[in-house]
């Protein structure tokens, strides 16, 4: 059986779409951050191959590295979360003793990242309103 020489590069658009969804970001928000249209994001997410320069820009906006996008797989995400579920299922649903991180810290990190994005989107929308007012 022959395998591809670039298995991790397979359909980069789908990988971007999944990462964007996991980050709770809409296509419109990603488009705004990149300074392109939502339709361009849709087309990008349908593309199997994406230029490295574009991939780096998208990765930065998504808050991940280019390598994270290249290496992304749904299986890895499922396995990552299953390691937490396995501990809680084996030792009771509310066993906090096997937790090796503070869930509140993780929540605060996620909220901080979303706050930055929200503030940038809000600033962008305010600029649009000012432009429309001046017309």
How would you portray this structure in words?
This protein is an all-alpha fold and 135 residues long. It folds into two domains: 7-72, Orthogonal Bundle (434 Repressor (Amino-terminal Domain)), CATH 1.10.260; 102-135. It is built from seven helices and no strands. The longest helix is centred in the C-terminal third of the chain and has 32 residues, at 103-134. It starts with 11 loop residues before the first helix and ends with a helix. 9% of the residues are buried.
Task: Quickly describe the structure.
The protein is an all-alpha fold.
Topology:
Elements: H1 12-22, H2 27-34, H3 38-45, H4 52-62, H5 66-71, H6 74-91, H7 103-134
Helix pairs in contact: 2-3
- The CATH class of the largest domain turns out to be Mainly Alpha
Give me the number of helical elements.
Answer: 7
- What is the CA–CA distance across the termini? 63 Å
Run of helices and strands: HHHHHHH
- CATH homologous superfamily label of the largest domain: lambda repressor-like DNA-binding domains
How many strand units?
A: 0
Summarize model confidence as the mean pLDDT: 78
Unreliable stretches (pLDDT < 50, length at least 5) are 1-9, 85-97
Into how many domains do the coordinates divide? 2
Percentage of residues in DSSP E strands: under 5%
CATH topology of the largest domain: 434 Repressor (Amino-terminal Domain)
Q: Any idea what the CATH architecture of the largest domain is?
A: Orthogonal Bundle
Gyration radius (Cα, Å) is 19 Å
| Helix and strand composition category | mainly alpha
Q: Give the % helix.
A: 55-70%
**Major sheet size, sense and barrel closure:** none
Give the overall shape.
Answer: flat
């Amino acid at each position: 059986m022959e395998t591809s020489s670039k298995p991790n590069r397979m359909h980069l658009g789908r990988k971007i779409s999944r990462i964007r969804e996991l980050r709770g970001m809409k296509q419109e928000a990603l488009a705004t951050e990149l300074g392109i249209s939502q339709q361009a994001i849709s087309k990008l997410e349908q593309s199997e191959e994406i230029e490295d320069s574009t991939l780096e820009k998208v990765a930065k906006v998504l808050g991940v590295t280019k390598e994270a996008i290249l290496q992304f797989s749904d299986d890895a995400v499922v396995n990552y979360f299953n390691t937490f579920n396995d501990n809680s299922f084996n030792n009771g649903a509310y066993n906090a003793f096997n937790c090796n991180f503070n869930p509140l810290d993780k929540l605060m990190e996620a909220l901080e990242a979303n706050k930055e994005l929200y503030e940038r989107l809000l600033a962008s929308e305010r600029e649009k309103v000012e432009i429309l007012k001046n017309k």
